[in-house]
Design brief:
There is one protein chain. With 699 residues, the protein is mainly β. It has one domain: Beta Barrel (Maltoporin, Chain A), CATH 2.40.170.20. Helices cover 6% and strands 53% of the residues. It has a 22-stranded antiparallel β-barrel. A 5-stranded mixed beta sheet has the order 1-6-7-4-5. The longest helix has 17 residues. It starts with 6 loop residues before the first helix and ends with a strand. 48% of the residues are buried.
């Protein structure tokens, strides 16, 4: 675990932030005396909405499949990555490559088809290039995480064809906090990895300016696994981050809103399990500096009802460092993105929004990373439109959306026409993906919402799919892109239903997607070493399975559902049962299965929710996955039993503050869990039984 960050210093920084937070309420109150009456309670500028729609629609008015992970759920989870945090949601699994690198897999689609973003702006990383590359957005930085699937993803880009994971936080404050000040601090300990973490954040107002600061740090050792081995080697992590931001809260009677920005720094180091050479393990040393700007304005009159602006710049780098301290590969990514979205009032029967999105990305790699992917550049510009029209009052609505992009990708591709003398050459490609969707949203009485949608989506190939040309030690593959790839097209139909309520809630979606020219990694059966001339049958390679990015027609279909029912009430307390189920089938139209598709899963549980005490106990069972692609092996079933108890200390004991204690159990049966989606599933078990202790204080 060479070159690991100084966790004690990082935790001290977080603790200092919390101490500062505790000292500032009086200052904030004095600075806001003039508006104390107005800010007695925090009043957000808009109701809580999901990113599935540009319109201010609460969750119970949207039929699109949307999952929200709350702040409380984030803090009680032991997840060190977004994939781990979201992996048990219906329709969502995770890549599970390393403890510090696990991307969400949505409906069997991953990497370039799942957009990772923070407050609507892309993550600015290279996590889609390889499963061992982590996403530089930590769960601790999130107020909530939204997972949006289906046609609702269209407004964010064609790369979101599988889904969008949007991390939402308050680094750019949107409103004045209650009393001009709010803060949170917390710490936790995990028995499975001897892991400790701490975090602190605060918002303080001075007049109509709100300042934000947050920091976090985490340290975990190699985690324990079932069986005699005891620990899974190279699963340690050390992660820390700090951010600051500020906003001006605006309003003059004609409009209100905010405008602000934030700067954040992220640092992460983590081991890569099951290394090719156990005597020379490799770890990732990752850093990112990110700047984001944002503004939302609501206008009281006129054609334009709102204007949303967002922009971001990311400077990202990571090295892949061996046991001797030598960096074998380095990836650098410089990326910027800007969005403008204009909301308009009724034009005839239509209400909606239109906007533009600009994006530029430069990836460079050195060492072995340079052998896999030479420097590449991607530029894109897009316009998009979303319109809604009532058909029968507010009961039945028609929603339509469209998007047109211009994507230019340049890099260097591998010429394999002479197998023993391969060369690379410069390539530039241009694509114009066009996408459209239409849907009916039916909202009868009783908090029910039903949706029927259809969409045609086109996606330009990613630089990795076009220009890969060398060894990929992390996945033990030799990857060869195809610079002649065409646009990937998908025709999707989806029927979904949702009901929100305390007595019972329910949501379900059934979908069918037909891909034309679906891009996937095809195992060729040849084996390579570190250069193309070693690939069999022309060479004598023994280490890396050769894969080629290939296009073929494919069909994805599936079903996902979850729900809860309250069975008993005691005053404000209630108890009940929960359940969930998901499945996806993915087949190549010419025959055979798409690789690494998640198994069928089903789960159930019980819960109790009171004002001071709450708890839950439930299981998620993954069935055996024996629908395999060429070169895959069968993955056995498992049952993951989890539970938690939360207790809010009485205010007389907590000194008038809100202090919550939580005890969380994960994989309580200590089952052997292998994730079929993971490239490492044959060599790496998921963590064994874990007991997690959490304390959270809110000021």
């Amino acid at each position: 675990m060479q070159n690991r960050v100084n966790l004690r210093a990082a935790l001290l920084s977080a603790a200092s932030l919390v101490a500062l937070a505790a000292a500032l309420p009086a200052v904030a109150q004095e600075a806001n005396e003039v508006q104390a009456e107005e800010t007695e309670t925090a009043v957000p500028l808009k109701p809580l909405v999901v990113t599935a729609s540009p319109l201010a629609s609460p969750l119970d008015e949207i039929a699109a499949p949307v999952d929200i992970v709350t702040r409380d759920d984030i803090l009680t989870s032991s997840a060190t990555t977004l994939g781990d945090l979201l992996g048990d949601l219906p329709g969502v699994t995770q890549s599970s490559f390393a403890a510090g690198a696990s991307r969400p897999v949505i409906r069997g689609l991953d990497n370039t088809r799942v957009r990772m973003q923070e407050n609507g702006i892309g993550a600015g990383d290279v996590s889609a290039v390889s499963e061992d590359h982590g996403v530089p957005i930590d769960p601790l930085a999130a107020e909530r995480v939204e997972v949006v699937r289906g046609p609702a993803t269209l407004r964010f880009g064609s790369e979101a064809i599988g889904g969008v994971v949007n991390v939402i936080n308050n680094r750019i404050p949107k409103a004045i906090p209650a009393g001009g000040f709010s803060a949170e601090a917390g710490a936790s300990y995990d028995t499975v990895s001897d892991g400790v973490q701490g975090h602190g954040k605060m918002d303080v107002a001075a007049g109509n300016v709100v300042f934000h600061a947050d920091g976090f740090a985490r340290d975990t050792d190699n985690y324990r696994i079932p069986g005699a081995t005891n620990r899974q080697s190279e699963t340690w992590t050390e992660t820390s981050g700090v951010a600051g931001g500020a906003s001006v809260i605006l309003g003059n009677g004609d409009f209100d809103g905010y405008a602000g920005g934030s700067v954040s720094y992220y640092d992460s180091q983590y081991g890569i399990p099951a290394p090719g050479d156990p005597l020379n393990p490799v770890h990732i040393d990752m850093h990112q500096t990110k700047v984001q700007l944002g503004s939302e304005l609501d206008f009281t009159s006129g054609f334009i009802s709102g204007l949303n602006l967002a922009g971001g710049y990311s400077d990202y780098t990571h090295g892949e460092v061996d046991a001797t301290g030598i960096t074998g590969s380095r990836f650098d990514n410089e990326e910027w993105e800007a969005r403008a979205e204009i909301l308009h009032r009724k034009v005839g029967p239509f209400t909606g929004a239109f906007g533009v999105q600009l994006h530029k990305r430069d990836i460079s790699a050195t060492g072995e990373g340079g052998e896999l992917l030479a420097p590449s550049e991607t530029e894109s510009a897009a316009v998009f439109l979303f319109e809604e029209m009532p058909l029968v009052g507010e009961t039945l609505k028609l929603q339509m959306a469209g998007r047109v992009e211009q994507v230019d990708v340049s890099g260097r591709a591998l010429d394999t026409s002479v197998p023993l003398l391969p060369t690379d050459y410069a390539v530039s490609r241009s694509f114009t993906p066009g996408s459209i969707s239409a849907g009916l949203v039916f909202s009868p009485a009783g908090s029910w919402v039903f949706g029927l949608t259809a969409q045609h989506v086109e996606r330009a190939p990613d630089a990795l799919e076009l220009f890969s040309k060398g060894p990929h030690e992390a996945t033990e593959t030799f990857e060869i892109g195809d610079p002649t790839l065409d646009k990937e097209k998908a025709l999707s139909f989806e029927l979904n239903a949702r009901r929100e309520g305390d007595d019972y809630s329910f949501e379900a979606a059934i979908f069918h997607t037909s891909f034309s020219d679906f891009i996937y990694k095809r195992l060729t059966g040849e084996v390579c070493d570190d250069s193309y001339d070693t690939c069999t049958p022309h060479g004598a390679g023994t280490e890396l399975d050769q894969v080629r990015f290939t296009q073929a027609d494919a069909t994805f279909r599936g079903f996902e559902t979850k729900g809860s029912v309250t069975l008993m009430r005691w005053g404000t307390a209630r108890a009940g049962v929960t359940g969930q189920f998901d499945m996806v089938r993915a087949e190549l139209d010419a025959g055979g299965n798409v690789p690494r598709i998640p198994p069928v899963r089903a789960g159930a549980g019980v819960f109790y929710a009171g004002e001071q005490l709450s708890g839950r106990l439930g299981f998620l069972h993954a069935f055996k996955q024996d629908r395999l692609s060429t070169g895959e092996t069968e993955t056995g079933s498992y049952t993951d039993l989890n539970g938690e108890i939360r207790y809010m200390l009485p205010e007389r004991i907590a000194g008038g503050q809100k202090i919550e204690l939580a005890l969380v159990g994960e994989n309580l049966l200590d089952h052997d869990i292998r994730n079929h989606v993971s490239f490492k599933k044959n060599d790496v078990l998921q963590p064994g039984r874990n007991v997690r202790f959490v304390v959270t204080a809110r000021f």
